């Protein structure tokens, strides 16, 4: 027994399948494009947190700033981060005195994957930051 199809039914299924395949490919490229940004944000968050921990621990504001910047860059350049092509900027505001807050800001700009394919422009700068108070009892050490 032969099943009769209405005219155009077979062509419609083919068109729907092609459309679904194109959408699936675009979604896959879109999800892959998020990976560098997510990795850069994770590295920036870790660096900003490490920076504030060193900033709050040092009794000398000048040394605290230098140590905090160094530990932030060491965190960003670590082997685990795998963020090749990402641009970073580190800004540190040391505490003004015992018990006062200091701030670490790590800005990043991740490359856009598939830029030519998807027609996207270069991504903007994003930032992660933490504020930390210097420990009053340690800040009295001189």
Structure write-up:
The structure is a single chain. The chain has 142 residues and is an alpha+beta fold. The chain has helices spanning 9-57, 61-76, 115-118, 136-139; strands at residues 87-93, 101-109, 126-133. It has a 3-stranded antiparallel β-sheet, covered by helices on one side. A hairpin with a 7-residue loop joins strand 1 and strand 2. Helix 1 (9-57) packs antiparallel against helix 2 (61-76).
Features:
alpha+beta, rod-shaped, three-stranded antiparallel beta sheet, single chain, 142 residues, 4 helices
| Rg, alpha carbons | 25 Å
Residue share in helices?
40-55%
| Dominant shape | rod-shaped
* Beta-strand segment tally: 3
Structural class label? alpha+beta
Short description:
This protein is an alpha+beta fold.
Secondary-structure topology with pairs:
Elements: H1 9-57, H2 61-76, E1 87-93, E2 101-109, H3 115-118, E3 126-133, H4 136-139
Helix pairs in contact: 1-2
